[in-house]
Write a structure and sequence with these properties.
Layout (H helix, E strand, L loop, with lengths): L2 H11 L17 E4 L2 E4 L2 H8 L3 H12 L3 E4 L2 E5 L4 H15 L10 E6 L2 E6 L5 E3 L3
Antiparallel strand pairs: 1-2, 2-4, 3-4, 5-6, 6-7
Length: about 130
C-alpha cells in the first residue's frame, strides 16, 4: 500500500471525539463545607495537573479570596464559605497569569527564576514572559 492509502485508513480508525480536542483540563475543585470553613479536598490534584507548587498556588488563592487557611495533605482549608464557582474563577485567574503561555496559548510551561524575576518558560514554543501578568 502507498502512503496515502495507509494514512486514509489510519484516519478512518481515529475516533471522532479525539480530533481537535483540548487535552488540558483542570479538575473541578471538590468542595466540602464545615461550618464557616470551605475545604477543597482535591487541591493537590489540581496543583499537580497544573504542574505547579501547591504552596505557591495556595498563597495565590488565599490572597485572591482575601482569607486565611491551611494546606494539609491533599486538602486546602479556607476560612469562610466559598462556592465551587468562586474558587474555580480564582484557579482560572492563576492559570492565566502563571500557567498559560501568552505567546502560543499552550499550558506546557514551567516557572523559572532569572535575575530575581519569576518567568513562565514555555516548553512548547520556548518563549519566556513575566509571570503574574
Amino acid at each position: 500500500m502507498d502512503y496515502e492509502k495507509l494514512l486514509k485508513r489510519g484516519m478512518e480508525k481515529v475516533p471522532d471525539d479525539v480530533e481537535g480536542g483540548e487535552r488540558f483540563r483542570i479538575a473541578k475543585p471538590q468542595i466540602e463545607k464545615a461550618g464557616s470553613k470551605t475545604i477543597i479536598t482535591n487541591f493537590l490534584e489540581i496543583a499537580g495537573s497544573l504542574r505547579r507548587d501547591p504552596d505557591d498556588m495556595f498563597k495565590f488563592l488565599l490572597k485572591q479570596l482575601a482569607t486565611k487557611g491551611e494546606l494539609a495533605g491533599q486538602r486546602a482549608t479556607l476560612q469562610g464559605v466559598f462556592t465551587q464557582d468562586q474558587i474555580m474563577k480564582k484557579i482560572n485567574l492563576y492559570v492565566g497569569g502563571f500557567v498559560k503561555c501568552p505567546e502560543c496559548g499552550k499550558h506546557d510551561t514551567k516557572l523559572v527564576y532569572e535575575k530575581g524575576a519569576e518567568l513562565i518558560k514555555c516548553e512548547a514554543c520556548g518563549a519566556k514572559s513575566a509571570a503574574g501578568r
